[in-house]
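Whiteboard transcription, Tuesday session. T.W. wrote the structure tokens on the left side:
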């Protein structure tokens, strides 16, 4: 449990620093109004990403653990020219391992994967500035950028966990930026398709609400279809049906999620682990995101995308059996910049608790042996199991709260 305690301590320090920054919100925002965005973002990224990386991995000498071992296995083999899905297993899209492999050409070490994640997080933050610029003054955006970089849901999951989930947000806002600059729906579609090939299969879920609102549906679908056909034309002769390996992730039972919480109350009779729960989860998450996008059809596209993104992937985090609380890193950027009212004490306290629990729980749950509760008595069989179930319940409730906060209300439309 040492890693759990380490994450707890680091997370609490992050939250104390965040609270201190919020206490000086007005003065700090005013001071940042006159600062260069690119220089300031570079400085705060260096402070809250590069320096922690140097301190943990180069000075203290810690080795990356957890998911980094899996990323290293994929990326190192890809960098040597091996074929994804055929020569090595991968739960990610086909280009993911090769992109990481390119970075290993600079430094052939697992630490390079962590540094890559930190760099990509910084790029996502920079592109988010251009995405959210119409809605924030310069000082306000930079203030929120500091908050984002300090929150444990981004700092710990990026520098210690080396999570890549923020990449999906990066690609969807890059696609929007390309469309705005070129006025071409084709480039928008091409970047979305590349994002799918570079990240995870779940990235395709955002295509559904975007397609519903797209006025030029044929021009949107043709580039995606062409890239999809070309990808299959390469993958199938090379690896056969092994390119479907990422879909195996849906079979992996994780926590927290609603089925796992309900299971002991129904004495293990609700079919946890069965495929139909995956389909129910997809229907709920995609259905809610489509409803949200339709309600926001007359809103600014950036507001619509931010809210729909949170509704889609936050819902997925608690209804899909294979999702886990690390997925906070997938939607934390739009949550910080678009939804949370940083003057609202209730929202601030809840986002703090949410970050803390989402960072700690996956490590705690895994080290307990990934428990699945069959009957109610299992949940209090030991103090650790009771704590685990309580954290799962709290994460699901808080996720529901932030989904509700993001979801467009009829009265506001």
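and on the right, the sequence the group agreed on:
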């Amino acid at each position: 449990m040492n890693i759990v305690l380490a994450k707890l301590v680091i997370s609490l320090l992050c939250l104390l620093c965040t609270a201190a920054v919020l206490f000086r919100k007005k003065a700090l925002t005013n001071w940042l109004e006159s600062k260069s965005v690119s220089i300031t973002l570079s400085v705060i990224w260096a402070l809250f990403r590069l320096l922690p990386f140097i301190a943990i991995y180069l000075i203290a000498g810690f080795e990356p653990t957890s998911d980094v071992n899996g990323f290293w296995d994929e990326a190192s083999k890809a960098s040597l020219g091996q074929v994804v899905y055929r020569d090595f297993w991968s739960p990610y899209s086909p280009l993911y391992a090769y992109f990481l492999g390119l970075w290993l050409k600079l430094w052939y070490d697992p630490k390079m994967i962590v540094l890559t994640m930190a760099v990509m997080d910084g790029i996502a933050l920079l592109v988010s500035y251009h995405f959210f610029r119409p809605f924030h003054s310069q000082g306000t955006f930079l203030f929120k950028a500091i908050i984002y970089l300090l929150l444990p849901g981004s700092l710990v999951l990026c520098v210690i966990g080396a999570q890549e989930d923020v990449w999906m947000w990066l690609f969807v806002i890059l696609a929007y930026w390309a469309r705005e600059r070129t006025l071409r729906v084709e480039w928008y579609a091409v970047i979305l398709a590349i994002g799918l090939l570079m990240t995870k299969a779940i990235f395709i879920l955002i295509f559904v609400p975007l397609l519903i609102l797209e006025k030029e549906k044929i021009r949107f679908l043709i580039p995606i279809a062409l890239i999809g056909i070309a990808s299959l034309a390469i993958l199938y002769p090379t690896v056969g049906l092994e390119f479907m390996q990422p879909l195996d992730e849906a079979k992996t039972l994780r926590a927290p999620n609603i089925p796992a919480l309900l299971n002991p109350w129904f004495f293990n009779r609700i079919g946890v682990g069965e495929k139909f729960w995956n389909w129910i989860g997809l229907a709920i998450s995609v259905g809610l995101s489509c409803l949200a996008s339709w309600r926001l059809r007359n809103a600014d596209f950036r507001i619509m995308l931010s809210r729909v993104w949170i509704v889609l992937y936050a819902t997925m985090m608690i209804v899909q059996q294979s999702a886990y609380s690390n997925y906070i890193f997938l939607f934390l950027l739009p949550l910080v910049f678009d939804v949370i009212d940083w003057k609202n004490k209730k929202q601030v306290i809840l986002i703090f608790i949410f970050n803390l629990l989402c960072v700690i729980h996956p490590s705690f749950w895994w080290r307990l042996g990934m428990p699945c509760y069959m009957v109610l008595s299992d949940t209090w069989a030991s103090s650790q199991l009771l704590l685990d179930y309580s954290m799962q319940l709290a994460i699901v409730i808080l996720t529901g709260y932030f989904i509700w906060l993001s979801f467009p209300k009829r009265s506001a439309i």
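Someone added at the bottom: DSSP finds 19 helices and no strands in the chain.
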